[in-house]
Amino acid sequence: MSFVLAKTRFYEVYGDQLNDRQARIVSRVFAEGRKGFEDGITTRKYEAITKCPNRTASRDLSDLIAKGIIIPLPDGGRTTRYELTMVEPALPGLMRK
């Protein structure tokens, strides 16, 4: 699936579920493209991009996980890393995540 199509579909499905900080990080991930966030989103990156305290970053990331918007990457070690959930394009008559 093309990156542009994935971005459009992502916002169709999740756009209204994001607070301002969450929208900022998602926008940054899409602006950087796949290469820019190869190592995933971390709490530290979230803090730096959104200019929020660690506790707020942790709560926002937990909220994104609960909503299925981000998923943890395997082999995180001490630092958990996350990536955006990519949404399949809708097929006529079907809605898939």
Biggest sheet strand line-up: 1-2
Top-tier CATH class: Mainly Alpha
- Percent of residues in helical segments? 40-55%
Q: What is the molecular shape?
A: globular
Largest sheet: 2 strands, antiparallel
Cα separation of the termini: 14 Å
Give the averaged pLDDT, no decimals: 84
β-sheet strand percentage:
5-15%
Counted up, domains total 1
Contiguous low-pLDDT stretches (5 residues minimum) are 91-97
Work out the number of β strands: 2
CATH architecture heading: Orthogonal Bundle
- Tally the helices: what do you get? 4
- Class per helix and strand makeup: mainly alpha
Annotated CATH topology? Arc Repressor Mutant, subunit A
Nearest-angstrom radius of gyration? 13 Å
Care to describe what's here?
The chain has 97 residues and is mainly alpha-helical. It has one domain: Arc Repressor Mutant, subunit A, CATH 1.10.10. The chain has 4 helices and 2 strands. A two-stranded antiparallel ribbon has the order 1-2. The radius of gyration is 13 Å and the shape is globular. The two termini are 14 Å apart. Mean pLDDT is 84; it is low at 91-97.
